[in-house]
Amino acid sequence: MARWRNLLARWTVLAIFLVLSTAGLAQDKPLKGVALVVGQSRYASLAPLPNPANDARQIAAMLEKLGFEVETLMDADARGLSGALGGFEERARGADVALVYYSGHGVEAGGENFLVPVDALPSEPKGFASATKLLERLQKSVPVTIVLLDACRNNPFPAGTTLLDDNGRPQPIAATGLGASRGVTPFASDPGKPDSVGAIVGFAAEPGKVALDGEPGGTSPYATALLKHLSAQGLHFADIMTLVAEEVYLDSDGRQVPWTNASLRRQLYFGGSAEPAADERTPIRTERRGLLLTIASLSSVDRAQVAAVAREKSVPMGLLFAALRAAGDHAPKAPDEFDRLLRAQGEFAQERLAASGAKLSDPDLARLAALADEAVREGALDAATEFHRQARARMDALSDGLAAVETGAAELRKERASVYAASAATWLLKFEHAKAADDFARAFAEVERVDDGLAVRYKLAQAKALADQGYYGADNAALDAGIEAFRDAADLAPLRRNPVDWLKAQAGLGNALATRGDREADSERLTEAVETLRDAITAAPADTPVDLQVDLKSELAYALLLSGMRQPGIDQLDQASMVLGETTAQVPLDRQPALWGRLMHRMGAIQYEIGRRLADPTTLEAALGAVDAALQVRTRDTVPLDWMTSENNRAIILSELAARGAGNERIHEAIEAYQAVLEVGTRERGPLLWAETVANLGTAQALLAERTGEEGRISTRPLPPFGSPRKR
After folding, report:
1. Residue 319: what are its φ and ψ, rounded to 5°?
2. What is the pLDDT of residue 653?
3. Which of 303, 353, 382, 721 has its Cα between 20 and 30 A from that of 208?
């Protein structure tokens, strides 16, 4: 998991306007930059766009602060747009850098991208300005040309509309977005021109995809990201465009991904005064940018899995990426365990966001809490923990006075507890479960005598943090401490007085006992886990929330499976199957597809184990049906790691069916499934699963060769058994 490391090194702050890193242009001196900023909002006959005017005004102001000579053009008709572009080409001669920013309607036709004037008619598209030719002309006279096109909105023209090219031939206007400007080949800089550095064109969305306009009255996602990062000092321009792309990707919930086509012969840096001076928020900005560069280095598999879980948990993708980045090399590599961690971090993100906005009477505490909340939203977890440290120090300074306060002491203690709890929730996102448990314990101590409800909440949180430390850290002492903390929480929340929290304590206790028993092959612990969960389900009132009922039954099924795996016969496995069937019936596929898919995946693992023990093809076919059902929602494109685990289980079940007499068709299906798993499940991604899959693939191929008599592939030794399906 080293890919989650911080990729952003210490920055050097440049005190000049624009700098090129190598020979060809003078260094360390102010360079001449000219810019044309165009905002097209008020279309007369096409769909108006609320935000380009705002985009243009704010981008122009930022470029002026960066030292550019800026011309701003608003709501230009065909004549005004053409004249402004021609005038800008003249003004750019002799400049070191020419930058064009355009926000408005844009279309692609015949391999060229066009800017649409505000007087364009749907029935007679003409007077469009070619952004492609503008770039080509600027390249001939300016060392560095940058064109940023925030013009990938929906095509405003009727289907089938065409533009005439230079040869008078009609070219169809693309249905959505802009194109990659004469293909995806990078723009060429002129090697024969010593001072030619190259060109960059930035698109607000991938070629052929639609960009978002943003909330009315604001700025587009692309403009917002440019405003946030274009002035970053000490980063070369390629990295800045990466920051912009990833910012838009996160803020649009993955719906929009900017794209850059560039050919730079040297590194280009922006400097100047647009970046705010160092202040309390500087660590947040710096860490956010490091996170964005880290995200850019990740595989599409990891990105898709994180995006899916973030949507399921309704948390910002950036915060979930930050939580995984903090886990670093401590995060498990096996896909099923990695997915478990991902979902746990998603729940921690929910808890931390819920802790935001606490009302604090002390101004310094309120300021530090607000900064910590902002840092968390930005995924700047190191900065957040530092603000929490300062808040704890401030509370220590206030402690002497608290004991002397009579009126309002309870409220002050609740405030202090909320500060500790927010700090603990941030520690969880940083994969620091032991530190989180300590802070939850402090929060509990603050409210133990003044608020029973909060006391139970913090004790439960402490218990879960200890249990997670035990699970992820292989720390049995922490796991044992978590078990005792869950028992304490249950004592604090008696069933008759507080049934929901009592049941939550029992669910956590059962899970911790099952983990401990599975780790130590301790049948007594496993039996205690089963009895704890079964008793809780029996005692649960009729009005227990459905989600809590599902949690209890799901944990019971898992404990029964773990216990049944260590016992002869199938009694407990049958019980696990029955309980899980009841649980799945309570989960609506249309509203909770991810949870439904996980339950069906686990059902397949249980049915497989029963079918394998009984040598029963019918039960094995039922297991296959459960996994196939899970794969309806655990698809390769949306949740690749979940898909890989379920597809691997499917291959194992198919192999088992083939080994027990099914036709060669099942072997072919199994081989195809194993090969598909290996396309996603690389050795680096999960070495254990990869090794198991390779071994199982070889066994399946040997079985096929043995049946078909294919020379050179027939096994001369007894075939090894196929692996066990992943249970989670």
Report:
1. -70, -35
2. 95
3. 303
E strand or H helix at 665 = helix 664-680
Which residue, 248, 243, 240, 171, is CA-closest to 204?
A: 248
As a whole number of angstroms, the distance between CA 623 and CA 558 comes to 16
End-to-end CA distance of the chain: 21
pTM (predicted TM-score): 0.84
One-letter-per-residue 3-state SS of 268-327 = EEECCCCCCCCCCCHHHHHHHHHHHHHHHCCCHHHHHHHHHHHHHHCCCHHHHHHHHHHH
- State the alpha helices, DSSP H only, in 72-173: 78-92, 131-141
Low-confidence stretches of the chain (pLDDT beneath 70): 1-30, 152-153, 176-197, 264-276, 400-408, 710-728
* CA separation for the pair 1, 640 (Å, rounded): 17
Write down the H helix ranges in 496-570: 499-520, 523-539, 546-564
Cβ contact 271:97 at 8 Å: no
Q: Is 177 exposed, middle or buried (0-12, 13-18, 19+ CB in 10 A)?
A: buried
Whether the CB-CB separation of 98 and 145 falls below 8 Å is answered with yes
d(Cα 229, Cα 289) in Å, to the nearest integer? Answer: 8
- Whether 426 and 418 have beta carbons less than 8 Å apart is answered as no
Q: Which long-range contacts (CB under 8 A, 24 or more apart) does 533-538 make?
A: 533/506, 533/507, 533/559, 535/506, 536/503, 536/506, 536/507, 536/510
Convert 577-598 into a string of H (helix), E (strand) and C (coil): HHHHHHHHHCCCCCCCHHHHHH
What is the Cα–Cα distance from 425 to 388, expressed in whole angstroms? 11
Reduce the DSSP state of residue 33 to 3 states and report it: strand
- Residue-level pLDDT at 475: 92
Euclidean distance between CA atoms 363 and 398, whole angstroms = 12
Range 381-390, long-range pairs (CB < 8 A, 24+ positions): 381/287, 381/322, 381/323, 381/326, 381/426, 381/429, 381/430, 382/283, 382/287, 382/430, 383/283, 383/284, 383/287, 384/426, 385/423, 385/426, 385/427, 385/430, 386/283, 388/419, 388/422, 388/423, 388/426, 389/423
Distance CA 515, CA 619 (A): 27
Q: Which residues pair with 103 in a beta bridge?
A: 39, 150
**How far is CA 521 from each of CA 470, 504, 513, 517, 559, rounded to the nearest angstrom?**
16, 25, 11, 5, 13
The pLDDT value recorded for residue 185 is 32
Is there a contact between 650 and 636 (Cβ–Cβ < 8 Å)?
Answer: no
The answer to whether 687 and 333 have CB atoms below 8 angstroms apart is: yes
Side-chain half-sphere exposure of 533, counting CA atoms within 13 A: 28
- DSSP secondary structure code for residue 660 in this structure: T
Closest CA to 347 of 293, 282, 253, 428: 428
Pairing of strands 144-150, 198-203: parallel
Q: Which residues of 441-451 are buried (b: 16+ CB within 10 A; e: fewer)?
A: bbbbebbbeeb
Q: Angle, to 10 degrees, between the axis of helix 335-354 and the axis of helix 409-429?
A: 150
State the residue for tokens 């780790």: 519
Task: For 200-268, give the DSSP string.
Answer: EEEESSSTT-PPP--STTS--HHHHHHHHHTT-TTSBHHHHHHHHHHHHHHHTTTS---EEEEEESS-E
Distance (Å, rounded) from C-alpha 242 to C-alpha 77?
A: 33
- The burial of 427, by beta-carbon neighbours within 10 Å (0-12 exposed, 13-18 middle, 19 or more buried), is given as buried
Partner residues linked to 133 by β-bridges: none
